[in-house]
Amino acid sequence: MSAEYPNATIVACDLGIFDSGIGHISLPNVDFQLADAQSQWTYHEPFDLIHIRGLSGAFRDWHSIYQQAFAHLRPGGYIEIADTDPAGDTIAVTTNSDEGNINTPNLRTYASALRASGEISGCPRDLQHLRKESLSAAGFDNINVIEETFPIGLWPEDIHDKTLGKMALIALLEGLEAHALRPLTKLAGYTLEAAKELCEKVQEEVLAAGKITARVRIVTARRPISFEQRRDDVFARATARARILREGRGDL
After folding, report:
1. pLDDT for 232 beyond 90
2. Over 70: is that where the pLDDT of 229 sits?
3. Residue 8 falls within a domain, yes or no?
4. Which superkingdom does the taxonomy of this entry point to (predicted)?
């Protein structure tokens, strides 16, 4: 986004400190901030786009998040939310020979433990927040929901899909502990050692699997343009067109 829109002002927020990776890259139009989206948003200028990704199980009250996003978008601005979650039955594992689902008991245990911890905390680990009804209840319109299936691993033959699969595999393997350690040790009764051991076993299963895919659901929606805003926009376009016509004729 920084490269595609160099004149834009981009705010990147997370709960944790950006202690590695892109947080240390010099991006003059990106402002990295520590913020909790569940707290009151304090931005002073409205956004053209609010993007939320990978926060399944993060919030008790998604409606509040959508209400705040609605309030901080300009009229006509868009929100985009994308999620895929191992605990939300979004991962499918099969053999290379299409023999059907292979046995992945540790992955199932991992997903089940995350779902249980989500139920205890009141932060569901699923994709129910990515429904049209959730956005329309906050006032959004032009709501679109799509689902895409992407590869995990190096099994695709197509070079683009293989590259995507490699990136997804790295993200999955490196993200297992990040997703699980706190909920498993705090809510699901695991010791730290047991939680790490489970993650290691899931890594082994993933690396041994023949073919893995995952579903991602993406929702986009717009804050409606009010009648007054539409009227002002039409007037502004008409005024600009009249000025161009006058200048074209040489009229002053």
Report:
1. no
2. no
3. no
4. Eukaryota
